[in-house]
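Re: export button greyed out
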Amino acid sequence: MTQTPSGEVVVRLQGVGRRFGATPALAGVDLTIRQGERVAVLGPSGAGKSTLLALLNGSLEPSEGSLEILGSAPAGLSTRERRALQRRVGTISQGLDLVEQVRVLHNVNAGRLAEWGTPRALASLAWPRPDRRALDALTAVGLEWAVHERTERLSGGERQRVAIARLLIQRPELVLADEPVASLDPTRASEVLALLGQAVRRGTGLDADPDAGPVARPDGALVVTLHQPLLARQHCTRAIGLREGRLIFDAVVDDLPPAALDDLYARA
Amino acid sequence: MLLRRVAGALIILLPILWALRRALPGDSDVVNAGGVPLIGDLLAKALSPRLDGEFLRVVLEATGTTLAFAALGTAGALVIGLLGGLVLSDVAWSRRPPLPVRLVRGLLRGVLVAIRSVHELVWALLLVSVLGLDPLVAVIAIALPFGAQTAQVFGDTFDALPTRALRSLRDAGAPAVPAVVFALLPPAGPLMLSYSFYRFECAVRSTVLLGAVGVGGLGQELVVSLSSRNWDEVWTLIAAVIVLSALVDAWSGRLRTDMAVASCAEWSAGGTTSVPRRSHSRWARWSAVAVVPGLVVAWIASGVSLSGLTSERTRMLTVGLLEDLVPPALPSAGWQVVTGGVLDTLAMAVLAMSIAVLITVVVSPWAVAARRSGGPPAPLGARAVRWVVWAIARVVLLVLRSVPPTVWAVIALLALFPGVLPGALALGIYTGGVLGRLVAESWESVSPAPRDALVRTGVPGALATVAAVVPASAQQLVTYTLYRFEICVRETAVVGIVGAAGLGRLLADNLNFFRFPVVTTLLLASFAVSVAVELISRRLRHAIRA
Ligand SMILES: Nc1ncnc2c1ncn2[C@@H]1O[C@H](COP(=O)(O)OP(=O)(O)OP(=O)(O)O)[C@@H](O)[C@H]1O
Ligand SMILES: [Mg+2]
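Workaround output, generated via the alternate export path:
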């Protein structure tokens, strides 16, 4: 049994609900996630997992309840402030959101667009130069050889790792992954989840870069939706179960009783 | 089923009969007997075109001017198209845009439709009255309607792209401009380039047309030689126009097949579903390298300068023109003149389209490149004959569409009295060249597999073709005919301006006499007709696809 986490609060939801039209996709969710946590979101299809992640990255607003991400409530933010907040949140899906027609390097650098601002971003698209940080990010996912490859030439698994490199270079404090391993074989799936875990671990690899300062930041948090409870147990510290928009359980992975899972996926 | 067929046949036949009645009024002469010998003169000179050095230099220079105007006009259209396309497309806005933006967008959509409903030649006429015979007139007259069309196509191209990449960049806090550039331009790039070259092809043809208002280039030389009846010069110029057109077609066609598997036919019908090719050929690379210096040379050589736009005189004339244009007024002879013009325009378009379809049905089947079918290869002699027939058909279509409809109209007007008929003939011949090529290209993409399957089961080749290829081909013919009909309605302005009939003729006449309030009425009438036809044709196209 792991101890209760004591880091700073990364996200806090109180009575959060979200409805599309009349149908509620999420209702009455209370949830607090702290630094250092790796949270698996489990639940059957249509349970509201993707909706939860969209709320957490600020691209969707709750219809009720209060939501706080990295210390601010997205509801009250201006567009500029929202972008600044979203820059600290990294989102990744099945790796289908890469630009296929450009070099790998561009897709990695895409993680820095927010940091760079418009002029530098445009310059980098015209004259791509691989710098330390980009190479480090690619090395971390084992793709340093592919910097100048066209993204569409890579295999599905390699593309997924490019997306992770893009995430790494963004240095997010909160990583949200929506079914990142849905289409991968078991070994690959484990690899990807390990990399995602590494993306929120500080003081190593990428984060030890000069402009990050000598003092390593504390760990960030990872929220990942999964369909395999086994992977959740191996790679996460905590698991929550959603069903029909409601939080069914919330437990440290080791404490997860098998009955809870049976309940979660049982037909109504 | 039978009822539907009968209804379909009536929808096609009744307008044609009506248009014929309008074109051949019983009470007046149609053929101008005095002009027939002129046609004889014209034909007689075909064998001895003017080829002396002095004239050839004029032709060469005019060709350069035409190319330069076309290139600059296309470049302008692309700028308008890119910006307009981004504003119009839904993907470029990450979430639902705020109300003011939506209003501006709606307004822009309307303005773009209005801009492209006015033919480039009419734009040139209007611009000439403000800018005088400035080269800028040609460039703007091309850039405006082409830009409006391009904005539409680019907007649709962006919206057809997967949005996930852009969304994920925006969700990670990326600012709008680099996010759009990173995520939309690379996947849309090849298609946009391909479309740009298609536009350039069109622009060359349009620039030749614009010669009719006197802004320079091959078109103007043609009009001058035609009106002074120097037939030997006319032939040289027509040859130059055809060669230029053929070269540009070949070059741009080559590039388009290299970059994306989009045919002209697809682009002209407003979009493509094909996937861009991955590797870029040497052709594409060298052309890309040549574009920027080419534009600079075109800019310098053609003497286009933007100073005309900002000069005090232009400002005054523009304000004056705008004041003259409102409020619109009816012609002194009453509204019957306007409705008459509208009906003439429609009749001309209907007849022209019938002629074009006739040409297409006769010529296009031969202009489809021979494909290897399932059976054993045909004997060498048969293949050679097939190739010669193919080449002839292609050249015929090329000539029909390269000679501008204004020239066909002037020739027709030698032997026929002004009216619907010469306009319809001229427009029909030209449109036949365009439609024939589009349809032939689209027929090339009809899958030969069903036919081959039939042949393999022992069905004779011709029968297999009828059974397996004709239905698909007929549908394409109908789709492109309807689509081209929309354009044809707009292009009646062209033959009208050189004196045939319809709204274009009225426009040119009233502009000549500076009756600007009437011009506004006529422009509004053209706009209404063109939008109405577009809506009806879209409805029909949907009905056919369903
Ligand atoms: N943009 C939307 N508009 C309307 N309804 C939506 C929208 N997004 C989600 N929903 C609805 O909300 C509910 C929850 O959807 P969500 O995508 O969050 O489920 P999920 O748990 O991610 O499912 P899956 O495992 O299939 O991805 C579903 O009933 C869905 O139809
Ligand atoms: Mg989901």
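Chain A has a mean pLDDT of 84. The button fix ships in the next patch.
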